[in-house]
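Pasting two entries for a bug report.
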Amino acid sequence: MHLDFVPVWTVILGVGVFMYVLLDGFDLGVGILFPFAADEDARSLMMNSVAPIWDGNETWLILGGMGLLAAFPVAFAIVIPAVYFPILLMLLGLMFRGVAFEFRSRDPAHRPWWNRAFFGGSLVATFSQGVVLGMFVQGFTVTGRAFTGTSFDWLAPFPLVTGAGLVAGYVLLGSAWLVMKTEGALQTWARRCATLALVAMLAFIAVVSIWTPLLHEEIAARWFTWPNLAWFAFVPVLTALIAWAIWRSLRSSSDYVPFVGAMGLFAMSYLGLGISVFPYIVPYRLTLWDAAAVPSAQAFLLIGTLFLLPIIFMYLGWAYYVFRGKVSADVGYH
């Protein structure tokens, strides 16, 4: 009798991807907002707010990619060729913004160029992640257990719309982060940005929520047949309540509710995605069990993963604890 490690790996990958979206999402959002700040002092404060923790956030991206390869190799072999170019663009964007972090402070003569690199890298990385998400929901061209589409299947309306939607979502996370971490004029500006981003994100959520069931009958049946309609009604209801709480908090003196609420919106969107596609890991061809590695390989890899996960959580928790509170202009990158 073999133990079933697929549920364990599903939880690990699900948590890893969600943590990446939340944690790297807000610092990518700060990067997208970067060129629209009032002046260089404001931009320096924005960079200081994410400088101590941005690279640690990307730990979850590595965990997600390597976990997919190790635990679900068939899915990795299908998904990666299908989204090769968006992933390439995402990695290039992350590289550009990482270099900009270092050189903006050390090369003042070319600071405008590094500002553009920070913005462009953040925008390209975010849009590319949204395209990958859109391709995942749209589905892949698969014959047997192999991808048989082209590397340009992502150039389709639905993935491009989800790419734009993720940009709006990350801007909401980034601006809510700035509301929490800054004061004065920069915080006031961030509240305005968060309000606009909230409206844009809700619009994209509505469009994608209507469009997704039209793409696949399986998704429509999952959401709109009885008793599922009653079981899953809490998702849109909670989404609306969270959006209302964010809206109210942005018009009050609350510094923390906008960011917590933005994370809540992403949690509801992530949960909705999971409800739509479960149990598929290659929608709508292969289930998690169809694409899984052999149990012995999953068990071997699980030993190291369960050892590393607490270390990652402790390291990130300590980093966020040490750098808690409002950001100041005299600490970090300048």
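Entry 2 (this is the one that rendered wrong in the viewer):
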Amino acid sequence: MEATAFPRHEQYKPALSAWLGEVPSHWSLLPGLAVLRENKKKNIGMVEETVLSLSYGTVIIKPPEKLTGLVPESFETYQVIKPNDIIIRPTDLQNDHTSLRTGLAKDHGIITSAYICLRPSPEHNPVFMHYLLHAYDLMKVFYGMGSGLRQNLDYRDFKRLELCFPHREEQDRIANFLDQKTAEIDEAIAKKQRLIELLKEQKAILINQAVTKGLNPDVAMRDSGVEWIGEVPEHWNVSKLSHYARITNGSTPSRDVPGYWLDGTIPWLSSGKVNEYEIYTPSELVTKRALKETSIRIYPKGTVVIGIVGQGKTRGTSAIMRLDACINQNMAAIETERCVDEEYVHRYLVQAYDHVRNYGKGSNQEALNCELVGAIKMTFPPLEEQQTIVIHIKSIEDKIDKIIRATAKENELLSELKINLISEAVTGKVKL
């Protein structure tokens, strides 16, 4: 369903605001103060205890176990929220142009007073008013408003904001339509997202099977001696990675020496690059002087690198370099012997991420290091079999990744449809 498939209204009139352009002739154009009032009721006496939060455009109940970190000494400073209140996150417009800033409350509770709480007049449908402000949010209208160094909003901005709306019966009809259609679109997106996750799981299982069991289902098996690997083909070796590879880490030339970085020509990688799976471009460029005067060295393309520091996804994540480059100290380079295919090592470490990431736990290790990476147990088939397995895995990756990309594109189109449907419905571009 396309938003543009709906008919237009018979007559339109110009609006003052560029983002509205024109609206149906029978719709009203009024400033926000005519239909929205600010609620600033404080939670004096702790009349409400349910803490609410604005998350991805939805007002949710914040679980008690997440009430940690930057919480007030007393929730009496929070403002009391009722169902159908519209919540606006007004801060930091200067730096954050991506977050959704509006949400409709569905519960009684309290929320930080840093947010703006708008309460529609009783004669207006609050769900319609929410969709209207949500459409303004999607159209980035709020980023032309605000004041101060970081462009914070306050109620005065909404008092002057031009709003468009039909009579109550039409508001109800539009709100009900959007509730139904956006729920259908969200359900379709969720199903496709679940399909993507299942495809990723299937790919991981097939790759794990290939690098730990091989491709011949009739081959004789033996116990690997490693619990999470289980049985392996009888003729495979199971050994520490360090027995088949040299593992070292890099460094970062001093930022205090401009001559190490200015007009650099040699690729240098920061640890975040491991999240790219295959690395084709550098993070930065260093100079020949840095190569001569510091401990950095150039690793050849085909080198497998792995993140060794960090609490995020980076630690334990590996990638393969498609360029000659230096690396920083927060990643380890794995240079394999001739009897080991680096593509095989790369895919083995990718599927073994959970085990690799937690290697050394229980020994007071907060991060990996080259010694721990070298101690990782791996399966090592003969070189020719490694290469056959890599070809098989590439075929799996190509087929499944193609489906994943197509499904992700379908979700992008559904998200665009949802945005267009909301924006066109609440600004009268289509007749419902």
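Dev reply: Rendering is fixed now. As a check, the viewer should reflect this: The chain has two domains: 3-188+413-426, 237-380.
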